[in-house]
Amino acid sequence: VFSQSFTASFAIYNVANGVDLKGVSRPRCITCNLIDGCSFFKAVFSPNITHFILYCLGPGIPKVSVHSTKDPSRYVIMEDNRPLAKALEDKRLPETLFRTVQADNHDLHLKLSLPQGYEANLLPLLIIVDGTPGSQSVTEEFSLNWPQVLCSTHNVALAWVDGRTGVGRGQKTVAVDPRKLGSLRVKDYLGVVELLTRLPYIDDRRIALYGKAFGGYLTLKMLAATNQLFQCTAAVAPITDFRLYSAAFSERYFGLPAKEEHAYSTASVLEEVNKLKDENFLIVHGTADARVHFQHSAELLSRLVKAEANYSLQLYPDEGHVLRELHSIQHFQRTVVNYLQTCLKHSVLLELPEEEEEEDD
């Protein structure tokens, strides 16, 4: 299934002025093997470029250090997050794998987080969908959030995918027709899903999707493109029609709505509501969302009601795209975790009586 492993690091390089005899620049890696457990970095330089603050973001416990530009190997640790490291010493954290997979004759980057002892179990799969142009989902950045809780506590496999147009590939980035903004990404994700279901420890009857904003848009498009392949889906603040989204973004990829009506209609989730009516999905939205206006979900809900579709809905009054109130954040995490946990266990609970009846026969 997998062609090879790869590293999803993010290093800092020094690009010297000038090139070699072949006209090729030879950048020098500043952060490679600089700090143990660190390969994913962000740097902030002083105004005179004599020093820089280095943020080690993973894969180990995040750290912050100050370095001299002349000799980066000499540094002072400002924050080592020792209490966090101590708290995690006796915790069963997920095992993370990075792989390159072939789908539709393109190399796609995949990150898998698996509970310890995963090879001895048949695991449900949750795919965290992003795919926003200019974003990178498959990285070595440290993360400890509700998806990791699902993985380590409830034995759910997690997957992130960077498609053919994902960043972090340098000159290997594939140029595509911008009007195929969603269709190619959906194709990439579905290709990876097909490969993942061949793994001996993945249960192909228990696959779920989670996405926010553009990721929420892709999850709904994936539901519409398949027939109950996914057990359930959580779409948070989903973009449902690019005519309702930021003009700077939409017109960059689709052109003017008056001239590209077909492209906008093809990309719209609202045109495919009938394909969603028998699917199991949860829509979450803050009513004061200024990035993906609540109108996106309102238009979708209106059409879902007319189609007599089955869906679940969770609204957060006066909350924006990023939840601010602590009680809203905690409620959101409980809602999503409980929804996904319930639906991913549902098929197993339904099958138990059938197995008992077969034994009685």
From TrEMBL:
Residues covered by the Peptidase S9 prolyl oligopeptidase catalytic domain: 144-346
Entry keyword Glycoprotein: yes
Cellular component terms (Gene Ontology): voltage-gated potassium channel complex
Cellular compartments annotated: Cell membrane
Domain of life: Eukaryota
GO molecular function: serine-type peptidase activity
Predominant localisation class: membrane
Keywords: Glycoprotein
Pfam families: Peptidase_S9
GO BP terms: proteolysis; regulation of potassium ion transmembrane transport
Membrane topology: Single-pass type II membrane protein
Keyword Transit peptide: no
Protein name per Swiss-Prot or TrEMBL: Peptidase S9 prolyl oligopeptidase catalytic domain-containing protein
Protein's organism: Nothobranchius pienaari
